[in-house]
Design goal:
mainly alpha; 3 helices; 47 residues; globular
């Protein structure tokens, strides 16, 4: 998605998305579609 980890985590915080890092890692491996949606929301909150 083109975000560094720190920007991604900052975007999650700004978007009020609270997900444990371990859950995010599992989601990135096992549910790529859901992870992509979360990443897009994080990216959008940084604009």
């Amino acid at each position: 998605c083109g975000l560094s980890y720190s920007k991604f985590m900052n975007g999650l915080k700004k978007a009020s998305i609270e997900i444990d890092r371990k859950v995010l890692a599992d989601m990135a491996v096992f549910d790529k579609a859901a992870f992509a949606q979360i990443a897009e929301k994080a990216k959008a909150s940084l604009v």
